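Protein modeling request. Please complete all fields; requests missing the sequence field cannot be processed.
Requester role: graduate student
Desired output: 3D structure, token encoding
Chains: 1
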Amino acid sequence: MDGQYPSQMPPLDAFYPNVPPPMYPPEPFPPRLHHLQTVSMESLGAYSDYEDPNNPTPPQGQGQARSRRRPQGSEHIKHRRTRSGCYTCRQRRVKCDETHPICERCRKGKRECAYPGETPSSSTSRPSRTSSKSKGSLGSTPSTSEDESNVDAKPWLPAIPDDEEDAEEDEPQSGTSEHRAFSTIVPTVRSKNTSPIVERSSRAARETSRAQTNRNASKHSVKSSISQNSRWSKLGKDVKSYLKYHRDSMSHHHYGFKYDAGDFLKTTFLEIALNDDSEALLYGIVAFAAYHHALTHQDDIISRFLSYYNRSINLLQQSLTKKRHSVATLLTILQLATIEEFLGDWTNLLGHQRAAHQILTDLFTPQTIMQDETRRRIISWYIRFDLFAASMAGTETNLDREWFAACAEFYTLQAQERPEDLGAKFEEFFSTSRLLATDSTLLFAAKKKGTLSDEAFGKEVDSINAQIMRFGSILETVYNRPENFVAISSQAPVPSEGDITDFRDPQFLYGGELFTMNFILIDFWAIDLMFKYQLVTAQYPLPPTSLAAIALKKCKMFEAVEHYDQGPPGALLGCQASLGIASLFLPKDKKHTDWCRRKFALIEQKGYIYPAALRQHMSELWAIDVNHWWLPNDEGYPRVVRSIRDFVQYRASMPKDAQTSDVRDISNILKALNLSEDSNFPDDLKSTGSDVFDPSLDPSMNWGSSPEHGLP
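Delivered output (712 residues):
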């Protein structure tokens, strides 16, 4: 599972009372997440005026579609596709001229006009937050919200098709006959159909089917969509180049995502970023693209990445204090949190995560979060960080269980509505895994706090263990046919004494449209491993499967993905969390230790920097000093990775007093690190467009380490 690391206790044979526990946050981490300094409550109070950008309410009398007659003999006029038009025009299925802030059609018709990521101009009531918490009840049915005003909100509206696309058939859905319902795996998924959440989820799942099909069928037009946006011509050449790099050369795995339905990160995500009020998000995306470009091309000049990142932070700080918060604000914080994760700065990562939680629960409820694809991507993104934080601290998740249950219910019903759609099955598998991980986390947190009797704890352990066994049996057999597996690359290393797994097994790695199953399995094995490990720490009888055997399966999948040359870009980054967990349960001999050191170095070479606390712990665990670098004599230690590490270390060492923590001068940072401020643009990106570079990117901009620090 994403970010699922062991909590507070190391393996039984590797306990060191004087060092941090495995994957534990670096000092000065407080003992509990709620002590972190993030957005002030005064600043967050502005969220109460939020208006839902995904559900603009038509003026009185315009809620129903009008019936229009065409004169006899006239031909139906087909509109060209618009991906960045306002919601009202898209809902009415008419051409939008994309004039900001109000398009011409909405101005003439005096209609509500809102663009993706923006807040509508007229006030609407925000969804109320749920008042009851379900953390203490592991099997309870999620409660409904008292405010039902957003129950009938429309899902994300499909784009208007082109003339050319009308002539094409929709992309056929991937099919399989092995549809299996998960009603016997997770208690809340088998809730009665009279549940308000299930009713709304079922309706949303049905409404999503056609919209998702349209989105998938139009992927060929994605490349031209961002350049058709009205803001495109106003962007600098450098910004355009990195946006195109993000779209063409990166995948969802670069974000740590295991799956991205409908290519959200390449479509809607970029559409929202190109809105006038989403500049902070735009530069956050550009910064992340510049980061990965530097790593891929071994460009040790990271000043461009730092400049974009700094600009995004400053713009977010300004937006947090000047206006109401929107979906774009939330996406910006999640983007910045992802950057902090890749930098290995978990202190700032959890600061962002706390801020995202506050905004998320203020804008949405479990009943409204699943109503369109943008919201569903947001909740999946946030859940990834929530489980990451809970597993590190050994505490409960910040979100109540009903949020996880609502996701699982929605995707289970969607899979039932579309039994031949592989994407629906993948979403069901992932959401079921996340709910199992949540139940396990809540169970052991309750045990730790002493709020659960030994008898109740034993019953819950047996129940979750049975669910894990049933779910695992389904995952490992549902597509287990010889034709679904692929061989690894012929360029893979030949068998050697250094191998710890038989990753060349031709009946192990899924290929083609089933490639996502590899990440579903590696996620599930992480949950199984963590559950059994936590049973050991709770001195509960361990099931017969050993922890080392599960860890070796995860290592086998890691190497199989590494040496498969037909996967999407950055696929190995989707396996990095599994490496961190598995390494703690492998034998501590030289063979296994050397294997782990090589793989940790490989992940850092790809841009995922591990925190200093982890390197310190692994040094103690292996009795080998890897604090400086994973391999001896700086083998495979790229200069760009050194620059990134130096930056993170220097930022962490800077004073934290009130006078110096809020504003920093990036020029001084670059000078202290001996990094060049040369703005020479990468050669492979120079051919993009003919515009001048963005003059607003000045390396002397003020630097803030986190947008949540120093707000009024």
